[in-house]
């Protein structure tokens, strides 16, 4: 039988274990600091997407009870993004295409020969409340002495142009202007000392598609940790509206540059689209947290804009798309194959951990019903159409962008509602 341990041997054993305990505790502290937010997310309540509708967490809203610019609150229990489209000839459209000189020729569908205007007469009606009417006077007074900026791709530029069209008619002709400086377009309301701007950054991060004019690159590459390349142009903005989605959809993988675009031999890795998108969202939120004041400024993020390139998605004939479509999709649960559910999941995961109040504009589902609202063939073409294309309009129909006036005016009504009644 072994003799019992003496007090000295017990102390000796504890002394031998002490360095290991210190190392273990140090490692636990290091991991907790490094991955603390991830653990919080992992062990918190699972994200509820409903019909893949991201519902923003209420944690931010509770922390920031009074958001800047807010005049009131949305009615209790009202989700303004859940509703239906109703026919309205009395209040739609909110402006005339011919009366807004700022619409790009890629979006002027009537001028390009679209034979009907039904797409202009639909109004979004939330199920459980009413949507606040867009008030141009209130919006301009709110922007007095301030800057508002839309940052993203051509879909965000369409929303930007729609916003300008909703405002410009109450501004005297000699008191407004629009100028473009490379990636930046600035609309100025001179009497209000206010600017409404658009900044071209389709990935938000630096990429090889950053040229505002020459950016049609199939082999897209995004530089990791490079948001400040564009972000320096966003500083000092009071209301910021981000979007990014379409340019990430190159397949299941995305090329990420770890060094510089100037390097002779570039260090490029391929990661899943979801991981690349998550990287961009985290970069955006870090920039916002460091550069925006939650007591004075507001940040919005517009969700993915759906396209309608496959008519079989809504029960149509194979091989067709949005061309010649003049009716809405009536299935309330419709979700097209072009909207990647996993990206909505990424948005939910990242935004729920945000330490800054981000207002999420969930336009995806309501826009999915609008296969009638795309520019289709009624737009200025980038290059002359071939005889083969002309013989088959489906082959060159644009089922990504939207006619103005039209659907994107509703996006701005939702932006207006969430700015003043969050």
Describe the protein.
This protein is α/β, with parallel strands linked by helices. The protein has a domain at 83-204 and 228-245 and 277-382 and 390-421. It is built from 10 helices and 14 strands. The chain is globular. Residues 131-417 form the Trichome birefringence-like C-terminal domain. GO terms for molecular function: O-acetyltransferase activity.
Topology of this structure?
Layout: H1 7-43, H2 59-63, E1 83-87, E2 122-126, H3 136-142, E3 147-152, H4 154-168, E4 176-181, E5 184-189, E6 194-200, E7 221-223, H5 228-231, E8 239-242, E9 253-257, E10 268-272, H6 273-291, E11 298-302, H7 341-351, E12 358-361, H8 364-368, E13 374-376, H9 387-391, E14 398-402, H10 407-420
Helix pairs in contact: 4-10, 6-7
Question: Which features does this protein show?
Answer:
422 residues; 7-stranded mixed β-sheet; 14 strands; 16% strand; globular; disordered N terminus; transmembrane helix; Protein trichome birefringence-like 33; TBL_C; O-acetyltransferase activity; membrane
What proportion of the residues form beta strands (DSSP E)?
15-25%
Radius of gyration: 25 Å
Element-by-element helix/strand order: HHEEHEHEEEEHEEEHEHEHEHEH
Report the sheet with the most strands, covering strand number, pairing sense and barrel closure: 7 strands, mixed
Span of the ends, CA to CA = 76 Å
- Low-pLDDT segments, ≥5 res: 1-5, 7-15, 29-52, 57-61
Strand order of the largest sheet: 4-5-6-3-8-11-12
The number of helical segments is 10
Overall, the morphology is globular
Q: Structural class, judged by helices and strands?
A: alpha/beta
Question: Which range best describes the helical content: under 10%, 10-25%, 25-40%, 40-55%, 55-70% or over 70%?
Answer: 25-40%
Q: Mean pLDDT, nearest integer? A: 88
The count of β-strands is 14
InterPro entries: TBL, TBL_C, TBL_N
Protein name: Protein trichome birefringence-like 33
Membrane topology: Single-pass membrane protein
Domain Trichome birefringence-like C-terminal: 131-417
């Amino acid at each position: 039988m072994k003799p019992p341990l003496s007090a000295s041997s017990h102390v000796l054993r504890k002394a031998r274990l002490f360095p290991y305990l210190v190392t273990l505790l140090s490692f636990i502290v290091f991991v907790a600091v490094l991955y603390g937010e991830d653990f919080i997310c992992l062990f918190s309540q699972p994200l509820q997407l409903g019909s893949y509708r991201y519902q923003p967490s209420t944690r931010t809203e509770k922390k920031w009870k009074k958001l800047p610019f807010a005049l009131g609150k949305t009615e209790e229990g009202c989700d303004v993004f859940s509703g239906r489209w109703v026919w309205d000839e009395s209040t739609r459209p909110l402006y005339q295409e011919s009366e807004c000189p700022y619409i790009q020729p890629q979006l002027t569908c009537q001028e390009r020969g679209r034979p009907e205007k039904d797409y202009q007469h639909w109004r979004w009606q939330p199920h459980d409340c009413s949507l606040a009417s867009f008030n141009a006077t209130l919006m301009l007074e709110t922007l007095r002495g301030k800057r508002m900026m839309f940052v993203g791709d051509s879909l965000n530029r369409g929303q930007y142009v729609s916003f300008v069209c909703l405002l410009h008619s109450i501004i005297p002709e000699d008191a407004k202007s629009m100028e473009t400086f490379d990636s930046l377009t600035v609309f100025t309301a001179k009497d209000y000392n206010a600017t409404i701007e658009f900044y071209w950054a389709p990935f938000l991060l630096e990429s090889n598609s950053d040229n505002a004019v020459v950016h049609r690159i199939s082999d897209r590459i995004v530089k990791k940790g490079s948001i400040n390349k564009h972000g320096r142009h966003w500083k000092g903005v009071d209301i910021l509206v981000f979007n990014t989605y379409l340019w990430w959809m190159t397949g299941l993988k995305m090329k990420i540059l770890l060094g510089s675009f100037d390097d002779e031999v570039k260090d490029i890795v391929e990661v899943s689209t979801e991981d690349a998108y998550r990287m961009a969202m985290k970069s955006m939120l870090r920039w916002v947290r460091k550069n925006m004041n939650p007591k004075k400024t507001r940040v919005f993020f517009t969700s993915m804009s759906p396209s309608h390139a496959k008519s079989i998605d809504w029960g149509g004939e194979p091989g067709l798309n949005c061309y010649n479509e003049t009716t809405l999709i009536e299935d309330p649960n419709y979700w097209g194959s072009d909207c990647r559910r996993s990206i909505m999941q990424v948005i939910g995961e990242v935004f729920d951990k945000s330490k800054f109040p981000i207002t999420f504009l969930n336009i995806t589902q309501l826009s999915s019903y609008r296969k009638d609202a795309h520019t289709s063939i009624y737009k200025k073409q980038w290059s002359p159409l071939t005889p083969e294309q002309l013989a088959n309009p489906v082959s060159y129909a644009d089922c990504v962008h939207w006619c103005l006036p039209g659907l994107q005016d509703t996006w701005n009504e939702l932006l207006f509602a969430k700015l003043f009644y969050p």
